[in-house]
Amino acid sequence: MEYFLTEEQLEIKRLARRIAETHIIPQRAELDRKAEFPHAIMKEIAEAGLPAIYIPEEYDGIGAGLLEICIATEELSRACGGVGVTYAASSLGCFPIIIAGTHEQKKKYLPPIAAGEHYTAFCLTEAGAGSDASNIQTTARKVGAEYVLNGTKQWITNGSEAHTYTVFAKTDKSRGARGISAFVVEKGTPGFSFGKKEDKLGIRASATYEVIFEDCAVPKANLLGREGAGFGIAMRTFDKSRPGIGAQAVGIAQGAFDTALDYAYTRHQFGQSIINFQAISFMLADMAIQIEAARALTYQVARMIDSGAKNYNKESAMSKVFPSDVAMKVTTDAIQIMGGYGYMKDYPVEKYFRDAKITQIYEGTNQIQRQIIASVLVRELASSQRG
Description:
By secondary structure, the protein is an alpha+beta fold. It folds into three domains: 2-118, Acyl-CoA dehydrogenase/oxidase, N-terminal domain (Butyryl-Coa Dehydrogenase, subunit A, domain 1, Orthogonal Bundle), CATH 1.10.540.10; 121-228, Butyryl-CoA Dehydrogenase, subunit A, domain 2 (Beta Barrel), CATH 2.40.110; 231-382, Butyryl-CoA Dehydrogenase, subunit A, domain 3 (Up-down Bundle). The chain is built from eleven helices and ten strands. It has helices at residues 7-24, 28-34, 39-47, 66-79, 81-100, 103-114, 230-266, 278-306, 313-342, 349-358, 366-386, and strands at residues 120-123, 139-143, 146-157, 164-170, 180-186, 192-197, 208-219, 223-224, 268-269, 272-273. Strand 9 (268-269) and strand 10 (272-273) form a beta hairpin. Helix 9 packs antiparallel against helix 10. The mean pLDDT is 97.
């Protein structure tokens, strides 16, 4: 898929791969074992300028697009899904500010994010509001020149490590999804705290926490857009961010494939390399086909969004579903090829397998994505019949 990349995009790929090979791979097993946030690696990522990729130039960013984020995310995830999502989740938390923020809000919050000095987090999910995001119970009550937030957010990536949080709360519970508003909340705001750190199956290097608001007062100036626009901001954010999940999945799948391919070439049984056995070689061929198809879809949807397309929620959902399903299939097959070795923590494929699973779940489960795709297909059919 490199044939259409610009020299700038290839340089981003090279930078991310260098960080992956030099800094992530030597540390990934220990970070996974300890569930430790990759502070030193994130500093290297910042020094390489990768956090600035998606920030507009007038706010000290590079002003590149979603494709560039996907390229960097894929390369980082090829070494470790936990580091990849730590990087990508900051763009998820930042997109609402880019989408709906005022010039003053962008000027205040975006430059330190571009410099890699601040991480962001996206706070939508709650215990009773996962796939049904409109069912959030966190409230924001207007009191004078402030909004007072109360509620608990669950499974928030970058948890206690972020500095800037985009938070979704109901300003009018009677209006359902139309009563949700979006706010920027800064770490250290009184009434803003962190609960349980989650002990996860995979992506263990990323920090996942409960985020708690107890009479947390934020200035009216921290409202993103207008009251009631929060649900739309969240959905527009997901439409932009889902190819990033596809890129994570492609990277994880590629890393597992590379390991299995090398093993199959060097492992000898019955007097020959096991890659010579058709049962193994055909599995590897199918894995390579699936990865390349997933990468092509992810990159193409990213380019579609970067081109200024107005309606792309169907394609965005596709770019999340297919690559994440591929990641789960490829990592499972990688373990099978490596047999008992693949099952052991001495080798990275069991970690790739654990990291892959979450890509089918977060930012909307694959079942929800299929529902989105199907609903758009029905609307498109109805529209064509009316025409």
